[in-house]
Design goal:
It contains six helices and four strands. It has helices at about 1-10, 45-50, 65, 75-90, 100, 110-120, and strands spanning about 15, 25, 30-35, 40. The strands form two sheets. A two-stranded antiparallel sheet has the order 1-4. The protein has a two-stranded antiparallel sheet with strand order 2-3.
């Protein structure tokens, strides 16, 4: 999986933007294919259009997407880490109310709260571009 993602990023300059178990096919003999490129984008277009925000599956979204920040290949690497955790434990690493996810009341703060409870709130020390982001100053996290 990691080699496939490395190929997409380094050789093709493509972000998948929806890495999740359902988009990874496993074949006999250990062959793996990454599928479903509906959300994929070339890095050049991402930069050209200053693309941000809401793509991907909630359980596997990186904080950059949830906070509507500029992003790059790291969002796919984040999702791959979430996939590995899911494969090893059969659990989502950042758990939030699955029923809310399906309903109209779902909002991305649920993802952020789950991430920040497990990893802590990022600061300017460990994520320079996040230092002045007002949304993180709310006590709910």
């Amino acid at each position: 999986m990691a080699l496939g993602l490395k190929y997409l990023h380094e050789e093709k300059q493509i972000l998948h933007r929806d890495i999740k178990p359902a988009n990874i096919l496993w074949y006999d003999g250990g062959r793996i294919k990454i599928t479903d490129f509906n959300h994929a984008i070339e890095l050049e277009k991402l930069i050209e259009f200053n693309w941000r925000g809401n793509v991907g599956t909630p359980w596997f979204k990186a904080p950059e997407l949830l906070l509507d920040l500029k992003y790059s290949f790291g969002i796919d690497v984040w999702a791959l880490g979430c996939v590995f955790e899911h494969l090893l434990t059969q659990q989502f690493i950042f758990r939030f109310d699955a029923n809310a996810k399906k309903g109209v009341n779902y909002n991305q703060n649920q993802n952020l709260i789950a991430i920040f409870r497990k990893l802590g709130i990022p600061s300017g020390t460990n994520w320079a571009s996040i230092a002045e982001f007002d949304r993180l100053k709310k006590p709910e996290y």
